[in-house]
């Protein structure tokens, strides 16, 4: 597995951050411009990545105020999962997004840059939304 991580510290209680992230309807606002055809429920999201693929993701596990694990809801072009991990720092919350992907050597060369950019983009967007 190839792992991409990004962290951000938010001036919000962990319960507020968790409430936002546990609902996939809120994740559209964390996506870059090249994501379109977004549709979602609290537990599932479907979208298209421009010039790449269609993806369907679902929440596989929620651990209250700590973790949200998101996995493909159907066959995906690559095996991956997204995990938001929250750490209560008192008056602030550290949110870490980890994307783990099963990439062969060729895919690693092609996808590593975009996946790290996506990870960074999502944590920065979260900071903008909840800052």
Main attributes of the structure:
alpha+beta; seven-stranded antiparallel sheet; 131 residues; globular; Alpha-D-Glucose-1,6-Bisphosphate, Chain A, domain 4
Written overview of the protein:
The N and C termini lie far apart (31 Å). The protein has helices at 14-21, 105-130; strands at 2-10, 35-40, 44-49, 54-63, 67-72, 80-88, 93-101. The chain has a single domain (2-22, 60-130), classed as 2-Layer Sandwich (Alpha-D-Glucose-1,6-Bisphosphate, Chain A, domain 4). With 131 residues, it is α+β, with helices and mostly antiparallel strands. The chain has a 7-stranded antiparallel beta sheet, covered by helices on one side.
Concise summary:
This protein is α+β, with helices and mostly antiparallel strands and 131 residues long.
- Please name the fourth-level CATH homologous superfamily: START domain
* CATH domain class: Alpha Beta
What name does CATH use for the topology? Alpha-D-Glucose-1,6-Bisphosphate, Chain A, domain 4
Question: Strand fraction band?
Answer: 35-45%
Total strand count, please? 7
What is the SS-derived class?
Answer: alpha+beta
**How far is the first residue's CA from the last residue's CA?**
31 Å
- Low-pLDDT sequence parts: none
The number of helical elements comes to 2
Instruction: Kindly report the spatial arrangement of strands forming the biggest sheet.
Output: 1-7-6-5-4-3-2
Helix content: 25-40%
Round the mean pLDDT to the nearest integer and report it.
95
CATH architecture: 2-Layer Sandwich
Tally of separate domains: 1
The helix-strand sequence is EHEEEEEEH
Rough outline: globular
Oligomeric state: single chain
Radius of gyration: 14 Å
Biggest sheet descriptor: 7 strands, antiparallel
């Amino acid at each position: 597995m190839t792992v991409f991580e990004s962290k951000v510290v938010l001036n919000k209680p962990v319960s507020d951050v968790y409430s936002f992230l546990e609902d996939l309807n809120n994740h559209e606002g964390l996506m870059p411009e090249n994501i379109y055809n977004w549709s979602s429920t609290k537990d599932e999201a479907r979208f298209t990545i421009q010039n790449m693929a269609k993806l369907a993701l679902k929440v596989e596990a929620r651990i209250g105020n700590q973790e949200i694990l998101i996995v493909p809801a159907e066959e995906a072009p690559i095996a991956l999962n997204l995990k938001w991990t929250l750490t209560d720092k008192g008056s602030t919350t550290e949110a870490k997004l980890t994307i783990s992907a099963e990439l062969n050597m060729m895919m690693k060369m092609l996808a590593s840059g975009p996946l790290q950019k996506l990870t960074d983009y999502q944590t920065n967007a979260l900071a903008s939304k909840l800052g």
